[in-house]
Amino acid sequence: MRSKVRKPSKSWRLWLVGSVIGSCALIICTRLVWLHVFENQHLQGIGDELTNRHQDIPAYRGMITDRFGEPLAVSTPVFRIGVRPAELIGTPWAKKLAPFLDRSPEQLEQRVAQSLLPYLFLSRNVTPEGSAKIEALKLKGVKVEQQFRRFYPAGEVASHLLGFTDIDDEAQEGLELSFDHWLSGQDGSRHVLANRRANVVRYISAGEEVEHGKDLRLSIDLRLQYLTYRALKGAVDRSKAVGGSAVLVDAWSGEILALAAQPAFNPNNISSRTPDRVRNRTVSDMHEPGSSIKPFTIATAIDLGLIQSDTQIETTPGQFRVQGNVISDFKNYGLIDVSRVLSKSSNVGVAKIGLMMEPSALRDRLALLGFGQSTGIGFPGEAEGSLPSFAAWGDMDRAALSFGYGLNATTIQLAQAYSVFANAGVLKGLTLLSGGATPKPLAVFKAGTIEQVLPMLEAVTQVGGTATQAQVPMYRVGGKTGTTQKLSAGGSYASRQYVASFVGIAPLSNPRFVMAISVDDPRSQRYFGGQVAAPVFADVMDDVMRIYDIEPDSPKTRILAGRIAQ
Question: Is 11 a catalytic residue?
Answer without folding.
Answer: no
